Amino acid sequence: MKKIYKFIVVLVFLTGTLSCNKDFLDETPQDFFGKENAFKTDADFTASVNNLYRLVRNEFYTVNDFQPFHYLYRTDLGYDITVGSPNLISDYNPTTGIQGSHWTNLYKIIAEANTINSRIPASSMTNANKTLFEARARFFRAFAYRSLVYLFGGVPLVLEETVVEKTDYVRATKKEVLAQIIEDLKFAAANLPAIGAVKDGEISSLAANHLLAEAYIADGQYQNAVDAATVVIDDPATDLMTARFGSRSTVTPGDPYWDLFQVRNQNRVSAGNREAIWVIQMEPDVIGGGASTAAGSQNGVYALERVHAPLVRDLRINSVPAFTWPVGDYTGGRGVGFLAPSQHFRETIWQSDYNNDIRNANHNFVRDFIGTNPLSPYFGQVISTKNPPAGAVGINGAIVAGKNDRAFYPYQSKATTPFTHPTNLYTNPASTDAIKKLELKSGAGGTYRDEYMFRLAETYLLRAEAYLGLGNNTGAAAADINVVRARANASPVLPGNVNIDYILDERLRELGVEEKRMLTLMRLGKAFDRVSRLNPVYTSVMQPHFNLWPIPQVEIERNRTGKLDQNPNYN
Amino acid sequence: MLLLLIFPITVFAQDRTVSGKVLDESNLPLPGASVKVKVGTGSASTDVNGAFKIRVPQGGATLVVSFIGYVSKEVAVSASATTVTVTLVPEAKSLSEVVVVGYGTQKRSDVTGSVASVDLQASREVPNTNIAQYLQGSAPGLNVGVATNAGGTPPIQIRGQNTLSGSTSVLIILDGIQYNGSLSSINPDDIASIDVLKDASSTAVYGAQAANGVILITSRKGQANQPPRIAFSSAVTTQSPTTDLRPMNREEYLADIREAYYKEAYLEPDFTRPNPAFNVVDKVDPSNRINPTTLKPNDYDWWEEGTNRGLIVENSLSISGGGDRVNYLLSGSLVNQKGTIVNDHFKRKTLRANLETKALNWWKIGLVSSGSFVNQDGSEPAFGSIIRMSPLLTPYDESGNLIVNPTNTLELNPFTTYYVDDRERNNYYFANIYSDIDFPFLKGLNYRLNFGNNLRNTERAFASLYASNLQGEASRNYETYYDYMFDNILTYSKKIDKHDLAGTLVYGVSERKFSSSQARATGFTRLNLSYNNLSLGTNQFSTSAAYKEALEYQMARLNYKYNNKYLLTATLRRDGFSGFAKNNKYGIFPVVAAGWVMSEENFLKDVPFIDFLKLRIGYGEIGNQAFRYSSLDRVDVKDNNNNPYAYIFGDGGSSAFAQHVATLGNPDLKWERTKGSNFAVDFNLFGSRLNGTLEYYLNNTEDLLFDVLIPTITGFDRIPSNIGQIRNQGFEASITGNIMKKKDFSWTSTLNFATNKNSIIHLTGVDANGDGKEDDIVGSNLFIGKSINVVYHYQTNGIYQLTDTRLPGFPVGSLRVVDQNNSGTITTDDRVFLGKREPAYRISLRNTFGYKGFTLSTFINSVQGGKDGYLGNDNPSYFRDDNSIRANNVAGLDFWSPANPNGTLPRVVDGTRSPFEVEQWRDRSFVRLQDVSLSYNLPGNLIKKIKAQNVSFYVSGKNLVTWTDWKGWDPEPGLINNIPHSTATPNNIYGRSIAGRPVMKAFTLGVNVTY
Questions:
Q1: Taking Cα atoms as reference points, which of B485, B366, B475, B478 lies closest to residue B427?
Q2: Angle ∠(A457,A459,A461) on CA atoms, nearest 5
């Protein structure tokens, strides 16, 4: 028996040594970080802030070919021309409507910003950097809350990193949310670097002030709004671009407004653009560039060209296609004709200065197309939406002057990048044929260019809104509007004609598809009024309660131990 | 002395010869039976007539007659007798066989837990390339689905769904070692036995990974002292879909477009009289026209082009045998399968070497090893895309060139995949080296050491001119997975009088490591070098990933048997897993189980029809482990496709990398725990005519691992948690009748039946809404008192006709949703419980008939939903937009239109979508004639002539007939384990949608030869 004991002792010893060290079962991530080691240094926090930029770009531009355009459809600007009769009850259904992903995306920005803020105190950064990163995080948090509060009204206000399960949220008031936004932006404006001191694409003190002006307006603090906007306007580093500039400054036809939207012309450092306040960065086929030419136009690229340019492929004149398609010129690249302009955006707003406002010039608002099909008698000829040729048939039947057809409607050329698509999207870039060398691959359709989130022209229009809000200064409001109009060679507006509708129309003229129009209308509570009045497609289906989107039903259900009240009339 | 003259060779003077015959219970000769002299060296075996001759010592002797599957018999031969006739009676097979239990084997009659053995022989002749397919319907409670791709592994589940978000994988033990590779890598011909541990008392020896049951697979070994046995088998199988779904042809497609424009194609007001002015050419997608007034003339069958008759060719060869000290098995096999979809290939080569040597009388060392090389090269056309292509389009132009974008959209010609390079290889290596010591100084003490190793290398390479938006893309991807398992097993067994004692101690560790790297380039002007030179691509990307996890465990088990009557098993297992939170790494799992062999009791001993009767009762606790890293706050730097998160600042700037907090960790995450009870009776009656097992089980699972959905206000949509309790209970029966056994004819029948019912007992334990009852988690589709996969959805009631009054937002032709609360509008409050996705019961019946050399086997399998179970979502719907006009669809769909007012499927044509995507749930119940096989064994004299041991031929069919009311693709595919995360809709059960894939009907011709 002794032998057995010996054996067992040996065995126990053996297994004891085999059981290695105590940390055998410790879990060490191999290809990702943990919170405990990801928030120490400047580089760590920089990575988190980089992600905030990425999240913003994703939500507002690149996620796919429909979500970013929830900010444009169902507004006074345009509508989805492929939808026979819009069903807004469906679109704004709390369960299946369009709002869900936006709510989630915006709160993700807030959560990431809160994590940065909560982790700063224990980091190894210098005090100066701690303040700087806090300012950055708070800017993005304010930016996300601002979108939420316009779209949904008062929403749950979360200001700390969430580290445990939480299901008892309640909605703050709109006033409380706006107060938080203003507080965050004041901090950001005070602590972010000057616009000349940041990299292209980075937020600055001026970006914070621009957003602050808007938030003050939303909160009814008009004098504060004027002051914040004035900081931006009076900054010596900012000016409207009034002279030709940038990569295509010698191309005609062209003008300074047109130059603003040419490839590589948006950034301050590289292009000398002094009008840009905050530019969303896109760079083709670079990791993090947000503008893949390989993924097709439905993912990973800003699909504005695809969505807004008409599907000219299907325009036939006397049964002959007028265009080869897709061609990267003013025929709209590889547009597929989803977002057609409302009559208001297309015609009404331009009436006073139809021929002199450069923003309505054909190279900026394309109404006349040049035939590209060599087999058509209209090859090289103007085919105009204003005066379409007899025998022109599109997708919805015969083309009628002044009426949209999916195959043929006027569009803002800033949706595309005529003649300057990324080289690898051309099918025969080496061709000597003027049309053939511009032929695009079937995966084209993205807008491969940086995008303005904020631009000084908008700051002027915000200040005009603030002056209007003060109630006694339409003269100052008119003066601001006229700065913008003057650059566009449009006639000045008289102070007596300035009202909120005029400013909203001016924003359409100046910003058009560049603007997140839904946010503007909902900030002002004007969605129902403007859309039902000015976009007849929606007139019969627009309802007053659509001035706020519904809280996503799934959020109400997941918030098990609290109560998130639904917005009125959604149940 | 006369005999001496006849047998002059080697006959010792004092020996004599006895001749005889061995018969079975039906008085039929038993060839191959072994006859030995009990004291002495003489031995013989019977010939085809059951006859033998044996030398015995002078005087009286005792012969021991044995035959596999029969009770051995000792026969006394008197000093004067020269002939003897011995009749053997069959052992109840289910009792005599040795079954594999965890860390050891047991005689069936001694088992206290619920262990089912799979009848492999019955399935060998059916076209199965994956051993999981053998398991289908083979044991009650073992639920195996069907695979729809070549060589695929079907989903496997044992005794219902025990978890919400925990692992649902069944634990697979291959020759004692946990096997984490794909079952598709295993050569079915190498497998000797498969046993399934079903209840907690038997699985708990594997503790924390056993929550979903254990499948123990044992590969074949050579026998000691056996001359080389060479076995060759070969089979050819052809396959075709069980369903006749196909895309619409030209005529049907155009008719469908006409209906989609019924407001123009027919006259007002009722839209049933055709409008003569309507011309469908105006409405088709422009890609379908030559010019605005002329349709393309084609009626092209994309389906025909993209599918072919499936073909499987299998060959395997093995050599086994052994001497006194060494035994061996060497085998190799080749499988070549072409799936029904063109380019869905599966080729597998396997090699196996199992060796064991008795280095010393008390020490065995051995190696169980295999290599498996799977080749799935080739890129199949997207199945949905084949259906979606209009019959007016063709894949090739007049000169035979591929049309890359037939529809002028982003959708590629599905047959572009014919022109890509696609390499997909999986190499699996398995080696278990063991040392087995029977300590000479103490009989019954054994120490076994297993060192098992699994290695998988995956190589994927791809090159396509059409990928990446026609810029060309090529990539290479390598993955390596390695795990080892190091087990120390100490057993001691001792018999003292009527007491049989056996103790087992186990200590083991295991680690699993994975790493992958991928290189990808896009933008090729030349792709001639395929994926072999990625540096020709303009844009280059590389990614990598890795993980590691570890386990450590101890187990102690005691088996006790008294007088072959009373059985007791007690086990304690302690498990540690790296995937749990710091303070909850370990869990302890106890078991106790008892058996009572009633037939050994005196009061039953004399009951003539009871051969064997045993009651079993067991209780055990088992765990389920979380997924690695799930308790951690994950700060991730890439998305699910391994693309790094990054941004860029400035024109021409470089990547600025980013990080985000991807998951909300839970530092308290701990083991999910199932407490399972099992009650069973095993019986063998009427002289082994009727035997079987009846079982009832009750499993309560607590602290369920569940990703609780939380408001995205948090920045996350879920958190891994331990919540609530679910209960699974079920009844299982497996009954075999040896109905007839005559001279030339036999008939055996096995019936398997299983029910399982699961229900949620508790969830969060919170009553936040103050209604006095614990709250449901509606957002996760979890409801107290309901089954896990309950269907909580809108009820429909027909389709809105032209003149119907409609609820707000619902267009003509859409499904009419029942307004349960009569509020005048449909909200989420109108959802009701429509049923559940779980079946009510499963039943299967196998019949085997033997006539002379012929064996006919039939296998019928059925899954039934009962009143409101086994629901699947089959909801084709039509919404007219330019995509649906352009797309073809499955033929024969009964869409509503004014001309078809009784159509059952919604068709909406006026551009207004319904506010809800309403699902239609239908019963998937089916009965299937799953296997039929007919085999013929060459008669003995013929075999003798060619010096073989056995030669058989067979033909078989699989999935020959399916009876079901389910429409669309086969009712059975789809995960059995549906985890309700954010949606109640399983995305893997296909009705008449283009997303499905066919299940195969197959015919096989095969031959087995053994020398």
A1: B478
A2: 75
Q: Which residue has the tokens 């690229």?
A: A301
Nearest CA in chain A to B586: A25
Put simply, whether A16 touches B (Cβ < 8 Å) is: no
Q: Is residue B719 helix, strand or coil? A: strand
Query: Which residues of chain A make contact with B781, given a CB cutoff of 8 A?
Result: none
Name the residue among B162, B169, B198, B113 with its Cα closest to residue B591.
B113
The tally of CA atoms less than 13 A away on the side-chain side of residue B970 is: 24
Give the Cβ contact number of residue B118 at 10 Å: 20
- Answer yes or no: are the C-beta atoms of B108 and B94 closer than 8 Å: yes
Residues B915, A93: C-beta atoms closer than 8 Å:
yes
Q: Whole-angstrom Cα distance, residue B287 to residue A460?
A: 48
Give every CB contact of residue A470 below 8 A, 6+ residues apart in sequence.
A222, A223, A226
Dump pLDDT digits (tens) for B678-696: 999 999 998 888 999 999 9
pLDDT tens-digit profile of B809-822? 899 999 999 999 99
User: Do B779 and A167 contact (CB within 8 A), yes or no?
Assistant: no
Q: A260 to each of A308, A557, B99, how far by Cα in Å? A: 19, 46, 79
Q: Do B552 and A19 touch (CB under 8 A)?
A: yes
Q: What is the pLDDT of residue B5?
A: 42
Q: Supply the mean pLDDT for chain B.
A: 87
Kindly determine whether residue A442 and residue B470, on different chains, have CB atoms separated by under 8 Å.
Answer: yes
- CA-to-CA separations, B109 to B97, B693, B784, in angstroms, rounded: 8, 12, 41
Q: Which residues of A223-236 are buried (b: 16+ CB within 10 A; e: fewer)?
A: ebbbbbbebbbebe
pLDDT at B759: 93
Q: How many CB pairs under 8 A join A and B?
A: 316
Query: Which of A4, A22, A36, A51 is the mutation pick for testing B, counting most B CBs within 10 A?
Result: A51
B707 interfacial to chain A (CB closer than 8 Å): no
pLDDT tens by residue, B613-670: 999 999 999 888 878 888 889 999 988 777 889 999 999 889 999 999 999 988 888 8
Q: Tokens in use for B492?
A: 């001691």
Cα–Cα distance, A291 to B539 (Å, whole number): 13
**B911 to chain A, closest Cα gap in Å:** 4
**Per-residue pLDDT reduced to its tens digit, B340-374:** 888 888 999 999 999 999 989 899 999 999 999 99
Interchain contact, B650 vs A553, CB within 8 Å: no
The DSSP code for A467 is H
CA atoms of A171 and B501, how far apart (whole Å) = 67
Q: Which of B490, B649, B908 to mutate to test the interface with A (most CBs of A within 10 A)?
A: B649
